[in-house]
Amino acid sequence: MRTDRTTTPARRLGTRVRTTRLAAAGLAAVLGSGLLGACADDGSSDSASSKDSSGGRKTTVSVGVFGVFGYKQAGLYDEYEKLNPGISIKENSTERSEDYYPALLNHLTAGSGLSDIQAIEVDNVNELATEQADRFADLGRANGVSEDDFLKWKWDQAKTEDGKVIGLGTDIGPMGVCYRKDLFGKAGLPTERDEVGKLWAGDWDKYLDAGEKFTSKAPKGTHFMDSAAGLYNGAVSGYPLKNYSRSGELVYKKSPAVRESWDLAMRAIDGKMTGKLKQFDTAWDQAYANGTFASVICPPWMLGYIKEKSGSRGADKWDVAPAPKPANWGGSFLGVPEQAKNKDEAVKLAAWLTAPEQQAKLFKKQASFPSSAKALDMPEVKNAKHEYFDNAPIGEIFAKAAKDIPTTVLGPKDAVVKQNMSDVGILQVEQQEKTPEQGWSAATKKIDDAVED
Description:
The chain folds into 2 domains: 23-172 and 331-391, 3-Layer(aba) Sandwich (D-Maltodextrin-Binding Protein, domain 2), CATH 3.40.190.10; 176-298 and 413-452, 3-Layer(aba) Sandwich (D-Maltodextrin-Binding Protein, domain 2). It has 18 helices and 12 strands. It has helices at residues 76-83, 97-110, 122-131, 152-157, 181-186, 193-200, 204-216, 228-236, 256-270, 282-290, 301-310, 343-353, 356-366, 373-376, 379-382, 394-404, 414-432, 436-452; strands at 29-30, 34-35, 49-51, 57-66, 87-94, 117-121, 168-174, 176-180, 223-225, 293-298, 318-322, 328-335. Strands 3, 4, 5, 6, 7 and 12 form a 6-stranded mixed sheet that branches. The protein has a 4-stranded mixed sheet with strand order 9-10-8-11. Strands 1-2 form a two-stranded antiparallel ribbon. The longest helix has 19 residues, at 414-432. The two termini are 41 Å apart. Mean pLDDT is 89; it is low at 1-48.
């Protein structure tokens, strides 16, 4: 059953966040061929007109995204243009979210330079919903859009306190645990995914219990997991309340979710269960290739990354099991600025791209896991398997997790808290051998400084 679906986003607090996201969060993983590199386009954000084959004028709808959203690669733009001969679509892509988002804020403030559709990353959607909602069209009222088509928690993430929906959900990142069957077997742990899932079902502490068993018999040069920060992210993301209270107060220092997840990370470090790696760094990539860690907390979009970095040496060795608790990592939205030059056509296109049928097509071609509840029950999603991960039923595993993810109260400084807990506090303990108290102090100081700026 779904839990805690009633909460609304946290109210406005503090100044605007300039987030630095993990580079891979905007990448689309391909089921069959692995990772896609991010594409770039110098593309002016202004809409333009072109001529159709009969010489008539066509309306060009511009779509601003970061990384690879996959619409072009999956042929959805071409399909929409065939269905709507008077429309041409131009995508403007910025490779990294941390470059894209500040520019979007500047364009919103200026009221110019905007694409007709603008992608919004989940770490930024609350800030826009609380501070910039008047600059976006209400897509919840668009023709053909139904709240029932989307997972409730995803719909709520882009909803303002007065019910306006500033963006329609694209993909999501329900978490599982990807693990090396060969390393688990050598350490005396089960290797079949059903048995592996039972090891830690319902409790992240049980995941670490398995880690202790692995560590006691670990093959030479290997660790149970890649990083303590990955564990922290997996655990804290499964709570309805983490960094903010329901009234919008930043309460991360006294949040049970943050403290419990921090303690899990510290237990993993103290037990020498981690490879002391920073995710998405070169050393992390090399560790995949060398097979030096046995598990990693993974949303669907990471599967292609793992396949790419592990390569042929990792073939037939990886599998996927459910995470101890449902949680989400990543995902985006499509919003339409009020100042869009082709606002009406942009609303129609955004609604079509995020409809269940298109989300299912995008998953089949690009492995972007749907945020549409209806798409999750379509055969191309429900029956999906991943050959590289021992034909794991990823559609079934991740869809079940997606349906059980709680609605988490979001706030404008979530990205700041997440980044500094992971990249400052946890890394100082894990890599620099600082005490947990020193790591916590360093992280909270960085967060407080950012909040006060």
